[in-house]
Amino acid sequence: MKHETHHLSLRRTLPPILCAALFSLLLGGTVYGDTCITCHTDEDLLEENLAEVKTKTSAMQAGSG
Amino acid sequence: MAPLEPQEKVLVSEDFLDSTHGELACVDCHGGDDTADDKESAHEGFDPQPSINNPQETCGECHEEAETVPQSLHMTLSTFPGYLEKRASEDTWEKVDHGRERHCAACHTSCGGCHVSRPKYSGKGFVNGHIFSAKPDPVNQCTACHGSRVGNEFFGARGQGDVHLREYNMSCEDCHSAEEMHAAAPEGLENRYHLEEAANCKDCHQDLQYGSVRDHRIHNNKVQCQVCHSQTYVNCYSCHTGTDEEGIAYFINNHEFEGMKIGFNPDRIPDNNYKYVILRHVPVDHKLFDYYIKDGFPRFDVASTWKRASPHNIQRRTWQNANCNNCHGQRDLFLDESDLLDYEIKANIGVTVADDQIPPKRARVMPLNIDSSRVNASRVVTVEWLNEHLDDDNLVILDARSESDYEHGHIPGAISLDPNATEGLRTDPYSDTALTIEEDETLAETLGEYGIAIDDHIVVYAKRGMDAGFLLGILDYAGAENIAILDGGIMAWELADYELSDEEPDWEEKTFAIKSRKNLIVDTEYLKENLDNPDMKIVDVRVMQQSTGLVGHGLADRPGSIPGSVKFPLPGLFMDDSYLKSAEELLWVLRERNIRPNQTIVVSCNTGNWAAAAMFMLRYLGYPDVKLHDESWINWED
Prior knowledge:
The complex is a heterodimer of chains A (65) and B (638).
Chain A: H1 2-40, H2 43-49
Chain B: H1 6-9, H2 14-17, H3 26-30, H4 39-42, H5 50-53, H6 73-76, H7 79-87, H8 93-103, H9 111-115, H10 138-145, H11 147-155, H12 163-166, H13 172-175, H14 178-182, H15 214-219, H16 225-229, E1 233-243, E2 249-259, E3 261-264, E4 276-281, E5 306-308, E6 380-381, H17 383-388, E7 395-399, H18 403-407, E8 415-416, H19 440-449, E9 457-461, H20 465-478, E10 483-486, H21 489-495, E11 521-522, H22 524-529, E12 536-540, H23 544-547, E13 566-567, H24 583-592, E14 600-604, H25 609-620, E15 626-629
Parallel strand pairs in B: 6-10, 7-8, 7-9, 9-10, 11-15, 12-13, 12-14, 14-15
Antiparallel strand pairs in B: 1-2, 3-4, 4-5
Helix pairs in contact in B: 10-11, 20-25
């Protein structure tokens, strides 16, 4: 009987635990992705936040190289 | 290759997130802090180029090829310091090497520069939203660095391009395999040809000695393939280095020219044990690093300044292989001591070909049967002729370079008329109507304002022959009869030591009594109706990045080309520096490409400018029925 109770308990508790673990993993994944990806997939945001990096080529430079 | 806006360089596409690499966390490769909520903190410890700085622990986690990348030639350029060190001494090497680091070591790359981004040297930025590609992009990656020589030659920005692209749509990696690109270069590797994995024509073209081509049987293993199969290519001279007022390092290549020289092979090795090879002048100069150390190359003569080259502009049939005597006995084609600068004569002993070493002319050869009787020779003048006729009454000299080039010095009496920047020659490209040559009234008024009358003797010169050709094409359309291009342009004038002026001449406006040759122009509708006309040939004179559809023009809706058009880039008709190849050679080359005078030849490009230059050249060569598709590709709608 005790044995059966134990099984019943696992049957009841394991799915919510697994779901919670999976959910937190997914959520975690989304969070890390968002930090970089949120900005780097938003062209307008990037345009607002990035300045033109001026070329460092000298005006004296000439020829194909 | 159009430059990218800052945001375009780092914009990740949604498709990347669904790709295999998109499954990785950004920080796995790039570091940084993916939990930070502001830009600065997020980028702390961020590595924008993990494949350069840490290839084995980033790319190498999955791709075992990354193991050898740190020793690859793309990463180390290891053969380059080798030649410099040979020329330096123990006393000078440290400073020479410092100069090399500052000026010559910028163009290296690793996995990322070939598979995901433009290389650092060419401005960086994702090629396709951070999506990785196993095959490098020939435009945005390979020739973004290898552009001035390889790219220009391969795509036809110099010469008529490469047959491997035109006929077989081959790209860089079809010859230069992953094995070659990823290979670790052994320490002390002499040059790239010594790399065991290096590309070789014979990887594909095997057993030529048993084939049906007689000349292959005769020349196999004696003459490098490119001797017979390449076109003219660029040679660089006298590179000097320095630091400008802002502290930025620079180099100046003092002289570049398009040409071809055959010489003795300075680097005979198994598999490449040819006696004769194509030689390219490399930019090294005995004063290259004088900014860092005087006389840094006490052993300058230990290596030749003319190196074995492999131009990427292969054609099956070329002018030098048109028949035996186009090569045999041709003194100008073989490197002579008279081609050398004073300080490099010793360095090139062993590669120059003395008169008695040139393969002798053959007694009997196949005739070329070139009919040059229709060539309108008056349409080309030499600098010697122009110098003698500067004071002729009805002579008008037009400088087709940019205004700033004109202001730096021009032929005395020349009027500045840059066809690429002058209003009133062609319609506004941004208007709603098609871009074409202007209406008669406007065109006549513009030409008159520049002091041109229809019966003047008009000589046009430029730095690039095609700019002069573009203006001459418009003048030809406008009805001017007595027009000519200056062979060699401003470079030939300067080399002849003729006077240059910085004074703008006084000229009076004239009436240009226009007699426009409407029959020279065809529109898009005409072309569409005649696509199947066997008597008409459409010649697409754009560079082959565009005519093969790899890249679109900024004003065009899409990349592509007119169905059935022949790809013949304009630089096949004009050399880099405004010199013209002989009429016989051009006629032969055009015939080889099946562009024949017994057909209606329609020239087309993106906007009509290059096509106008091509029209001028074809009419100079005596083609009787040439048409300009003035509307060109940007007006071609499906």
